[in-house]
Design goal:
By secondary structure, the chain is mainly alpha-helical. It has five helices and two strands.
């Protein structure tokens, strides 16, 4: 159930990034769900490797390079996501900020209620 929720959350977040100039999505709901699943898989495989390789830059910039890294990863992910296009790294950076906000909002609204505080 959590896997389906993560795919739907990724699909909603990818759709929300189309408010950023330079990011477009063309396709139906099924291709959006496929893009959400592929985006989750891409983040699970590529993100840890990229994070490890960029660790020196992250340390030197006190973590600010994380925004650039997320933008680059979103831009790279657009090459494998069906119907999803990011026109450049700046659009990728802004899109990754939108994804962060949308994922935070979805987590706040539909997060597990059995978490201990």
């Amino acid at each position: 159930m959590r896997l389906i929720a993560a795919v739907i959350a990724n699909a909603v977040a990818l759709l929300a990034t189309t408010i950023v100039p330079g990011i477009t999505f063309r396709g139906g709901w099924l291709s959006l769900l496929a893009a959400g699943a592929l985006f989750g898989l891409f983040n699970a495989i590529v993100r840890p490797i990229a994070f490890f390789l960029s660790l020196p830059a992250l340390i030197l910039t006190l973590g600010l390079f994380h925004f650039v890294l997320n933008g680059i990863l979103l831009w790279l992910a657009s090459f494998v996501l069906p119907g999803y296009r990011v026109s450049g790294i700046l659009a990728g950076i802004l899109g990754s900020l939108v994804i962060t906000v949308v994922n935070w909002a979805i987590s706040a609204l539909f997060g597990r209620s059995d978490q201990r505080r």
